[in-house]
Specification:
This protein is of the alpha/beta class and 212 residues long. It contains nine helices and five strands. The chain has one domain: Glucose-6-phosphate isomerase like protein, domain 1 (Rossmann fold), CATH 3.40.50.10490.
């Protein structure tokens, strides 16, 4: 294995790689896409923050779900609300549906991986609650089923997607909110998603606590 790595390091391709330029390009491309996203996402993020605050003030809660990196984003969002973001405040009611391995694996084993979120939404969600549904492609089947379950439970949906929104964009109802990141690369879409989540958390705090 070590010999194979040494051979790889010695080949012409590795010697020709300019990692600094590649890294710089990644930063520049990400920054350009984030600037493009401002015009697309600023208004719907503000709308989403108002919807979350209305939900919380009515004793509702936010359920969040996604797969892979989007699962991490769902947990990140939930942690920022349950604990705090940048301002001191009481914890806010948010639940990531991606963290209970016993629940997820039992549903996946007994039924289907496609139902790991929808069954939780049907059990935990109530009318007036919100679902934050995250998918970079907009085509994650288990997230799509979670949206259908949320609608059945009388919940509104905040969808965080990319690549045009995929099937999720078609399944949203008029009262739902769609935050669709520009760009085609999953990595850059996820970078926009976490920025959008931070903006959403900040806006929620500002609406609840005011701005200094």
């Amino acid at each position: 294995m070590i010999r194979a790595i040494d051979n790889f390091r010695n080949n012409e391709f590795f010697q020709a790689m300019d990692l600094i330029s590649r890294i710089s390009h990644h930063f520049t491309e990400s920054a350009h896409l984030k600037l493009q996203a401002v015009d697309v996402l600023a208004n719907p993020i503000a709308d989403a923050a108002e919807r979350v605050v209305q939900c919380l003030l009515a004793d509702g809660k936010i359920l969040a779900c996604g797969n892979g990196g989007s699962a991490a984003d769902a947990q990140h969002f939930s942690a920022e609300l349950l604990n705090r973001f940048e301002m001191e405040r009481p914890g806010l009611a948010a639940v990531a549906l991606t963290t209970d391995t016993s629940t997820i694996t039992s549903i996946g084993n007994d039924y289907s991986f496609d139902q790991i979120f929808s069954k939780q939404v049907r059990a935990l969600g109530h009318s007036g609650d919100l679902l934050l549904a995250i998918s970079t492609s907009g085509n994650s089947r288990n997230v799509i089923q979670a949206i259908a379950a949320a609608h059945d439970r009388g919940m509104s949906v905040i969808a965080l997607t990319g690549k045009g929104g995929g099937q999720m964009a078609e399944d949203l109802l008029p009262g739902d909110i769609h935050l669709c990141a520009p760009g085609d690369r999953t990595a850059h879409i996820q970078e926009i998603h976490i920025t959008a989540i931070h903006c959403l958390c900040d806006a929620i705090d500002c609406l609840l606590l005011g701005v200094e």
